[in-house]
Design goal:
With 381 residues, the protein is an alpha/beta fold. The protein has 16 helices and eleven strands.
Amino acid sequence: MPATGTPRSALSRHGLRRGIAAAAALPLLVGALASCGYGSEAEKDDAPKANTAADAGTKLSASEVRIGYFPNLTHATALVGLQEGLIAKELGATTIKPQSFNAGPSEIEALNGGSLDIGFIGPSPSINAYVKSKGSNLRIISGSASGGVKLVVNPAKIKTLDDLKGKKIATPQKGNTQDVAFLNWIAEKGWKVDPESGKGDVSVVRTDNKVTPDAFKQGSIDGAWVPEPTASKLVSDGAAVLLDETALWPDKKFVITNIIVSQKFLKEHPDVVEAVLKGTVKTNEWINANPDKAKASANAKLAAESGKPLDAKVIDPAWPSILITDDPLAATLKTQSEWAVKAKLIQQPDLNGIYDLTLLNKVLKTAGKPEVSDAGLGATK
């Protein structure tokens, strides 16, 4: 760390003029340090101090990286990593251009259109985009989160899972990750629902998560299969949790958020992608080691996005239901794609090459962490 001032003895030896010059340089030095992520925001609490590209005097191959995410707790890696400056530290002089999205299709459109480089997104949009582009537009390069999805219902109308028959249950969007899971659950009950219209033994009402709480209050839906924090918002409005989706999975783990990258950006700027992954791995480690501080950090970022933080009665029950992980849980993505095929939402997909975990496993190995699997769906070199 360079000195931030000149000792008084030096001033007397070298003269007042040199002392004045050193003092004048001080604001520039402080500004340079802040631009490298060493400000009070980046160093608050016990967030890890990274050895950044800027520290080492190394410039990365891109001057900026555009990162997309949703203002959801299931995107906690992005929320906390940006809020605490942990991703920025690894990028050094490369600037992050964050972009917030409310739905997978709009984020994929941005990635395909060249206005987004890296994104946090659910498995179903990743699968759909990869298949539609015949494997040419993206790669999944890391996991981010598991769980955080619940079936919540009006307890006056629905007391058991069998009571869902004939009721109106919301999902965020046709073909999205929660919609696919709910349609599969319905099918396993032996009930019939048309995947396009949502009509059948259960009425599947595709509703934006922002609108779902109002729809529930007005009685136009009887419940919802939704991610956090929407599930806990509904509970705070009188709903009850009837099922946590983790209960349906053998190891109680399933991918809810991946990190994707455009193949063009990965090919042209692998050093930048690796730096981002160093930041996400360190962010995930910090989140898991400091859950309460991480929860507050995520809420601060959400407040910056929406103008107000989540109420404690929403975020407190929502936060512990989400597992933050580097593992993409690739086998569960394969299962989710099979559910979408069974629901006739997509044709049988060729997912070979959808993952490229080379850089993630390099980062994990360097950090002394176990490498993760692509379930046989990795890109060939």
